[in-house]
Amino acid sequence: MNWFKLASPAAFYPFAGRLIPRFGLAALVLVLIGFDWGFFLTSDQLGGSNPQKEYYRIIFVHVPAAWMSMWLYLVLAAWSAIGLVFNTRLSFMMAKAVAPTGAIFTFLALWTGALWGRPSWGTYWDWDPRLTSELLLFFLYIGYIALHSAIDDTRRADRAAALLAIVGLVMVPVIFLSINCPDPTQCASLHQRSDPGSIHLSILIPMLSMTLGFWAYSFAAVFARLRTIILTREADSAWAREVIAQEART
Amino acid sequence: MLDVTDLACRRGERDLFSGLGFQLPARTLLHVRGRNGSGKTSLLRVLCGLLRPDAGSIRWRGENIRELAEDYHRDLLYFGHLNGLKADLTGLENLRIASTLDQAPVDEDAIIEALARIGLEGFEDLPTRMLSQGQKKRVALARLILSKAPLWILDEPFTALDVDAVEFLQQLISAQVADGGSVVLTTHQEVPLTRGAIQRLTLGETVDDLDAATPAAH
Amino acid sequence: MMAFFSQGGYGGYVWGAFGMTFGLLLIEILQLRASQRKTLTRLSRLLRLRAPRQTASSAGRAQGTAGTKS
Amino acid sequence: MFRVFYCVLARDITLAMRRRTDVLTTLFFFVIVVSLFPLGVGSEREQLRLLGPGVVWVAALLASMLALERLFAADYDDGTLEQLLLTGQPLAVLVLGKVVAHWLLTGLPLVLIAPLVAMQYHLSPPAIWVMMAALAIGTPVLSLIGAIGAALTLGLRGGGILLSLLILPLYVPVLVYGAGAVSVSAIDIADTEPYLSLLSAFLLGASLLAPLAAAAALRISLE
Predict the structure, then answer these.
(1) How far is B177 from chain C (nearest CA, A)?
(2) What's the pLDDT tens digit per position in B47-67?
(3) Which residues of C touch B199 (CB under 8 A)?
(4) pLDDT score of A182 more than 70
(5) Mutation test of the interface with chain D: which of A106, A171, A176, A179, choosing the one with the most D Cβ atoms within 10 A?
(6) Tally of CB atoms within 10 A around A233
(7) DSSP for residue C8
């Protein structure tokens, strides 16, 4: 397969169309495995130095959602940079399509974090560095979406929002540093320091399965959104007319 | 000197022009015509490098203007719909700043003389917001007198000018062409030249217009 | 079964988290479906409207080239 | 290059001096916001001393952001911005000139008036000095980062509110370390050094990168 060919919207449109059901199915299966494992194969209580009861199961969605939110912002900024450097239309559309899904996962990370915080810390919102970082990431997503929708001219909207995404990406390490280390001389204010090696396998497997499920879901959702964006923007071209005429009949 | 090939420009959902190509040698004036909305201003902004074309290339003395960037802008004088004057500054200050930024600073006497030539003697120390529309335009046009740029791109320079000023501007343009420069301009006015060539470019109407009768190209 | 739903008394938190997650993702899917359908109908209507004119005038573009007169 | 930088700087300052009220508006906005807090949270001294650094910094953030809206807008409206893009000078240098002028007109007054508002919060004299130093290093960073947002939202409807949405999250590091420095100074003045050096590092980074980003944003917005 010639991958460069896929850079043209005309070739990518049907390609994405074929992939959506596959990713959708993969997402469903993986999420179900994660759910099933997490609820029926893990113990009800978490012992150790930090004993937790059933509510710890929230991490099976919280952690994957938080991971996805950060990963998708990277994807968003990467496509923005590619678009600005190589001036490829599809990259901008890709970035635009990623943003809402990323924002949803960020919101979910915040929501599930709050619900975990209440039984765990006794409050829905604590200025925990990781939750605060998610909150700021959420603002960055909202900024991208707001700027893009405030500009009528598509090209300016694409490029301006892309630049904002890159500026955001450059600032993210600094923002996270300032949140994690409000005192520059010591940075250990995390509520719970987690060491990936110490996580029990029965917890890690559902968490990873759920993450992969969310990842596949993101592919499906982003491709679906991308197809609509492509069609709207390319409506004048011959291939798009054919597609529209064809799909309108079915 | 200016070499345009296969230029295309879209604004929003609409194709303004495509496959546009021409060469503009020295000692030439390019007169761009077309109806309202036919893309005249967009074309001029593309030629300035303010607007990125959707296809095609523009070369200045053989090099792409994207790569020349600032070097191209040094050779260029653009006169847009807006006068580009700060209303709170005097004509003198406006022109002094403009010439400093163009890296061709001129002394105060030259500016005062330029303003006098364009008929604004005694107005040089007034904030431009106190001037009339036509006078503001004259202050802005005084940049043409001070400019040494070989390429002028002028968007509707004749509007809001009275008969004397129009005639003076025509002389300026024809002097620029005679001195070996090039001028691109949009106007409904004819510009008589003493020396040099005139090219005409008509941007066609979109065929969606019901009464579109003009042929697409001349 | 009851134990599954009550989650040791933390059912509200656990199901609140999972419910919001799956709910939001479902809403996103439905919203994507709806917007795709809406775009298709809008574009096909637009095409139908334009079609007769398009054939009459062969191309919807303006073109220009310069000729020299001295 | 220094000549054009200076030219733009002098131009913007001359312009502001002909409309002096604009400068004072920002300053009074800052003073009013800071003065409102004690009315809202109560005037207990100990509490005010704790809140002071954060309140002053948040007010500075808002004041600098409000003023930013005008950074490029006036030039955009009268066409001089277009001319600035076509001057044949590196646009980033011109942007830096405008930002420096903007800071001198809106940021510097905040630094100078800081002792006055600090007294409203019963800050100790050393804390006041630290606050002035932190504001002097931090507010230019705000102007620099804000210039990117101002360039991106140029000419948009609702530009001001959009600008705050885009820019305020990016101000967080300056807020954290700026306010942190003042809070820490109450314990030991020597502890403020890492805070101020971090702020200085931000200033260095921002003055190198932000003008480039703002120049790119201006090019995009003027297309």
Answers:
(1) 13
(2) 998 988 888 899 999 899 888
(3) 66-69
(4) yes
(5) A171
(6) 19
(7) G
Whether D82 and B85 lie within 8 Å, measured CB to CB? no
- Residue C63 pairs in a beta bridge with B18
Question: What is the rounded distance in angstroms from the CA atom of residue D100 to the CA atom of residue C9?
Answer: 59
Name the residue among B162, B155, B154 with its Cα closest to residue B138: B162
- The complex's ipTM? 0.88
Burial C57-66 (b: 16+ CB within 10 A, else e): eeeebbebeb
B208 at the A interface (CB within 8 A)? Answer: no
Residue C12's Cβ-count burial label (10 Å; 0-12, 13-18, 19+) is middle
D140 Cα to chain B: minimum distance (Å):
24
Chain A, residues 117-156, CB within 8 A of chain B, namely: 152-154
Displacement of CA A163 from its chain's centroid (Å): 19
Burial tier of B195 (Cβ tally within 10 Å: 0-12, 13-18, 19+): exposed
Match 């790569």 to its residue by tokens.
Answer: B67
Verify whether the Cβ–Cβ distance D19 to B88 is below 8 Å: yes
Using the Cβ of A183 and the Cβ atoms of chain B, whether some distance falls under 8 Å is answered with: no
Q: Check CB contact under 8 Å for B12 and A154.
A: yes
A partners (3+ CB pairs within 8 A) are: B, C, D
Please report, for chain A, the start and end positions of each structural domain, with discontinuous segments joined by +. Answer: 18-45+57-183+200-249
Burial of residue A196 (number of CB atoms within 10 Å: 0-12, 13-18, 19+): exposed
Q: Which residues contact D38 (CB under 8 A, 6 or more apart)?
A: D48, D120, D121
Whether this model's pTM surpasses 0.80: yes
What is the bridge-based pairing of β-strands B14-24 and B76-79?
Answer: unpaired
Work out the number of other CB atoms within 10 angstroms of the CB of residue B111.
23
**Buried b vs exposed e over B166-189: b needs ≥16 C-beta within 10 Å?**
bebbbebbbebbeeebbbbbbbeb
One-letter amino acid of A249? R
User: Quick one: B1-75+152-218 is in which CATH superfamily?
Assistant: P-loop containing nucleotide triphosphate hydrolases (3.40.50.300)
Chain D residues touching residue A146 (CB < 8 angstroms):
162, 165-166
The per-residue pLDDT for range B59-92, each reduced to its tens digit, is 999 899 888 888 898 889 998 888 888 989 998 8
Please report the pLDDT score of residue C45 as a whole number: 86
Count how many residues are written for chain B.
218
